[in-house]
Design brief:
Layout (H helix, E strand, L loop, with lengths): L1 H33 L10 H6 L14 E6 L8 H18 L12 E4 L2 H10 L11 H15 L1 E2 L6 E2 L5 H8 L10 E8 L4 E6 H6 L7 H9 L4 E4 L6 E6 H4 L4 H9 L14 E6 L15 H24 L3 H4 E4 L13 H17 L1 E5 L5 E7 H19 L31
Parallel strand pairs: 1-2, 1-9, 2-5, 9-10
Antiparallel strand pairs: 3-4, 5-6, 5-8, 7-8, 11-12
Helix pairs in contact: 3-5, 3-13, 3-14, 4-8, 6-8
């Protein structure tokens, strides 16, 4: 009996010590991160003796939120962005030495419009084994092989029209998977004719609010639609009449940045552009040509989309100010290469691949607000290489941080990802 009593007392003392340790650790975190205290509170000696992990390095910043933004189809039908992502993923694998690296491993947020939305969904949807469904190379192959099914050109080759939602194409890939099954924060726009306003399909909203979770096959169909499609939420509480994201948000970079800076539950330490690391991928400028700009309403739509995308680029570039050289990169073709108007569909796709490869070799273009653009010495490929280095640097820095800069809510039905950016089930906005 005496031995049992001693054992019980010992267990109580041990539990009290653990509780004391837990209380002191959370007190430090609360002081340091919630209230910004600069003093360095110390653990008691008893707690230090029981501490089984090494103390994190002092004064290590929380880190930058890594944002990937992908434009709508452009003159290359999404191939330029897909090629850019393939090169980026290959570079990340080469530098890290990890052959199973996915694009989603190195980003916290993805926004994609039109064909860019398809790429985002392919690359950031969770598969049965917990890893993303597609690599960048596989996503590129998907666009090439399914281009005929996804879209058809009008007779003048100017406007890409989706005559009916390619439900079978996307349904075969995603099945009944919904926004909740994406591995990181996902934003995909369309325009809702019911409310006459832009609509963002959002992972955070899907997990937090009724009527906001949609099948991924429907999301893809909505963001590329040139004719109205009706889309219902999984619970049937919301119905939207959608046309493609390119109509209202061909370049979704600003939407992604706004989402991060205003979402303190998932991105608690992101306060300004200094805390962001952003890459925006274009898909080649419109091939409408100035001589044909008044030839049809379709030409105006394309030109308007390009103009809006450029304005977003210029505004974002200026918003980053002194940080834009390191924290913001835009990859875009700086001129039209070749003509596609009189080719059959397969020839156009092959031409798009060649054009995209040539565009990646072009000198990179930086925007100057209301003053046009300027060429820099580095090519688009060079910029992708440099950005890969920044992504890896950020990943390494997070290993020494006391807290991750990202806290994503997890779907109850989904397995936990091993990503360093997923910490708990704190609610998202």
């Amino acid at each position: 009996m005496a031995a049992a009593a001693i054992s019980t007392i010992s267990m109580i003392d041990s539990n009290m010590e653990v509780d004391k340790l837990t209380y002191e650790i959370f007190s430090i975190l609360e002081n340091k991160f919630l209230f910004g205290y600069d003093n360095d509170p110390k653990l008691s000696s008893a707690c230090v003796d029981n501490l089984n992990f090494s103390t994190p390095k002092k004064n290590v910043p929380a880190g930058k939120i890594r944002i990937l933004s992908i434009d709508g189809g452009g003159s290359t039908n999404g191939i330029l962005a897909a090629k850019s992502l393939t090169h980026l993923e290959t570079t990340l694998r080469r530098i890290t030495g990890k052959k199973n690296t996915h694009i989603a491993d190195f980003f916290d947020v993805v926004a994609g419009s039109g064909t860019g939305g398809i790429l985002a969904t392919l690359l950031f949807t969770r598969g049965k084994d917990g890893v993303p469904l597609f690599t960048a190379e596989e996503a590129l192959k998907f666009l090439i092989e399914n281009n005929r099914k996804i879209s058809r050109s009008s007779s003048n080759g100017v406007l890409q029209r989706v005559f009916r939602p390619p439900v079978k194409v996307f349904g075969k890939v995603f099945g009944d998977l919904t926004l909740k099954e994406t591995v990181k924060a996902v934003l995909i726009p369309c325009y809702d004719l019911t409310t006459r306003s832009p609509f963002l399909f959002s992972r955070a909203d899907a997990l937090e609010m009724d009527g906001c979770d949609f099948k991924l096959s429907d999301v893809c169909g909505a963001t590329i639609a040139d004719r109205t499609v009706e889309v219902k939420s999984v619970d049937g509480r919301r119905k939207i009449t959608a046309v493609g994201g390119g109509v209202t948000m061909n370049n979704p970079t600003a939407a992604a940045i706004t989402h991060v800076l205003n979402n303190k539950q998932e991105f608690p330490f992101a306060n300004s552009v200094e805390d962001l690391l952003v890459i925006s991928l274009g898909n080649g400028e419109s091939d409408s040509g100035t001589g044909n700009m008044t030839s049809s309403p379709a030409a105006f739509v394309k030109i308007a989309g390009d103009g809006a995308a450029d304005m977003v680029d210029q505004a974002v570039s200026m918003a980053f100010g002194e940080f834009r050289n390191n924290n913001y990169v835009r990859v875009q073709g700086n001129e039209i290469i070749g003509k596609k108007q009189h080719m059959i569909k397969d020839e156009k796709m092959r031409k798009s691949i060649v054009i995209a490869e040539e565009m990646l070799k072009q000198k990179n273009v930086e925007s100057i607000l209301f003053q046009g653009k300027k060429l820099v010495e580095k090519t688009n490929l060079d910029k992708l290489e440099i950005f890969a280095g920044e992504l890896i640097k950020e990943e390494e820095m997070r290993k020494n941080s006391i807290l991750s800069p990202v806290v994503l809510k997890q779907s109850p039905s989904s397995p936990r990802t091993s990503s360093a950016t997923t910490l708990s089930t704190i609610s998202s906005c």
